[in-house]
Amino acid sequence: MNNEVQPVVLVLVGAAVLKISLGEAYLRYVKESLQPFLVASGVVLVLLGLLSAWKDLDRGGNSTSSAPVDHAGDGHDRAHGGPGIAWMLLLPVAAIFLVAPPALGADAASRDSGTVAGPRETSFVPLPEGDPVPLSVADYAVRAGWGGADTLQGRRVALDGFVTPAEDGGWYVTRIAMSCCAADGQAVKVKVLGQPAPPADTWVEVTGTYVPPDAQDPRTVPAVIQASGVVETTAPSNPYL
Amino acid sequence: MTERTTAPRPDGVQGPSRSSRRPRRPGALETLVFAVLLLVVAQQWLVPRLDAPALQTWATIFVSICVQALPFLVAGVLVSGAIAAYVPPEFFHRVLPRRPALAVPVAGMSGVVVPGCECASVPIAGSLVARGVTPAAAFAFLLAAPAINPIVLVATAVAFPGQPEMVLGRFLASLMVAVVMGWLWVRFGRTTWLRPRRRHSPEGTPPFEMFRRSVQHDFLHAGGFLVIGGIVAASVNVLVPSSVIETLAERWWLAVLALALLAVVVAICSEADAFVAASFTQFSRTAQLAFMVVGPAVDVKLIALQAGTFGRSFALHFAPVTFVVAVASTVLVGCWLL
């Protein structure tokens, strides 16, 4: 990669980061808390690219004396100072500008078991007032799987999430829990009984009551809800838990 | 001094430039413009065909790995550029013990105070070596910094509530990996495995210009390798069903090996890996520990970055040994603590 292209690549990568981090699109890929760092690194890259382009112009093309030339190398810095591997950086840039991959959805969730890790506390506080009680699928799944099922008994709850079809023809209301980026996303699924499956990836609110899962150990299977109603909703701006 | 040497002159006379020595090829800038135009035109046709759900999942995970790593990589190349341009080599000779065998544990412990992720520590270690720090100490730092810094330890404590022995186990096993690898390098390492680091600037370049060039080169270079690591990790994430891994949980040594290998291929950043490890509820705690000790020390993203920074021969020697040492440390600490 020669010296004329390097600044362009820097600016392109920086612009791609700024494009997603100045809006809400970055929430499809990473945690909210990363935003300031994304903006900062985008600005650094754009400035670096502009500075570098300006230096090149300033040199007036008399680049042979100022650019490091490596003829004896292993091809890593071919002739004009820049690493050829840097072309790979255009791949995520193209993906962001042209494809803009969506947030993880039913396809990713169907690859996970959908069970949850144990809770921090072993005692569960009673559900708040309300009928139905709005509850996150993770809260519901932890209560159902880890010994808090009695706090759910006799209460109507409302769970938000997207639709993931199950292999047996049923479906799950699903959220993906993310701790850093989408690569570590873990699906949390609650099996919905008693209502026909909406199309995959539809965002819904499921109202229903707790029923125990059909398994010896409730920690090894997704939690279950006996649904009385399903309403279509819109996707939240941050789709992850 | 206004003679232009990069382009053929209008009258067909060429200056004493590379273009007179080699056949004229389309320049990289033209290639880039053409590639971008082609992609923009092809978008209409391409995007509907990328509709397959698995491909979309792949693209999301690929982009998110790159986006997640980018701020850390930028921070890393800024620090390594600053080391290259502003910190005199004598500084490291003063703070590090002269004997490599002693410098290794000191460098390893210094990882405790530097909150960084693997993507940042590779270029920093690279510039430490270039500044004359003994490679063994630089590698101890490289392995320790992402694994045992305060952010990672706090994240581990949050992911394993009420189990401080997991945090302690992680700290001890990771520090052991860093120090053992440093000592192994003192004993067996060969400098011929390391690619000689090229100077980005001739003598007498002003420090800021040296800083700028070093940052630019290191970012483009390490960034390219990071993308390759991201491709591999996203592919594994989509192609290997988690049920395959879960069936391995029953035998304890298989479980340790399975989660250790998984850590290598999924390349999750060290601040997040504890949460993922905690979600493998069917696995033994030693196996979960293996996931957290191996991941920050050796994963596909890191191997690619190391190959880029230190050379392919280095990565081929260093990565497999690191894996073995990391698994062995985990088992030792696991048997004793967990």
Features:
A: 241 residues, alpha/beta, 5 helices, B: 338 residues, mainly alpha, disordered N terminus
Give structural notes:
Chain A contains five helices and six strands, in the order H-H-H-H-E-H-E-E-E-E-E. Chain A has helices at residues 5-21, 35-58, 90-99, 106-110, 137-145, and strands spanning 133-135, 156-165, 171-177, 186-193, 203-211, 223-232. With 241 residues, chain A is α/β, with parallel strands linked by helices. Chain A has a five-stranded mixed beta barrel with strand order 2-3-4-6-5. Helix content of chain A is 27%, strand content 20%. In chain A, a hairpin with an 8-residue loop joins strand 3 and strand 4 (186-193). Chain B has 338 residues and is mostly helical. The longest helix of chain B has 34 residues, at 53-86. Chain B starts with 17 loop residues before the first helix and ends with a helix. Helix content of chain B is 74%, strand content 0%. In chain B, helix 7 crosses helix 14 (285-297) and helix 8 packs parallel to helix 13. Classes of the chains: A alpha/beta (241), B mainly alpha (338).
**Sequence of secondary-structure elements of chain B:** HHHHHHHHHHHHHHHH
Report the mean per-residue pLDDT of chain B as an integer: 80
Please give the most extensive interface between any two protein chains, plus how many residues each contributes.
A-B, 81 and 88 residues
Distance between the termini of chain B: 71 Å
**Derived structural class of chain B:** mainly alpha
Identify the strand order in the major beta sheet of chain A. Answer: 2-3-4-6-5
Helix amount of chain B: over 70%
Alpha-carbon distance between the two ends of chain A: 41 Å
CA radius of gyration of chain A is 25 Å
Number of helices of chain B: 16
What is the beta-strand fraction of chain B? under 5%
Helix count from the secondary structure assignment of chain A: 5
Overall form of chain A? elongated
Radius of gyration of chain B: 23 Å
Beta-strand residue percentage of chain A: 15-25%
How many β strands of chain A by DSSP?
Answer: 6
Shape of chain B from CA axes? flat
The overall average pLDDT of chain A, rounded, is 83
Measured as a percent range, the helix fraction of chain A is: 25-40%
Which sheet architecture does the biggest sheet of chain A show? 5 strands, mixed, barrel
Low-pLDDT windows of residues of chain A: 62-80
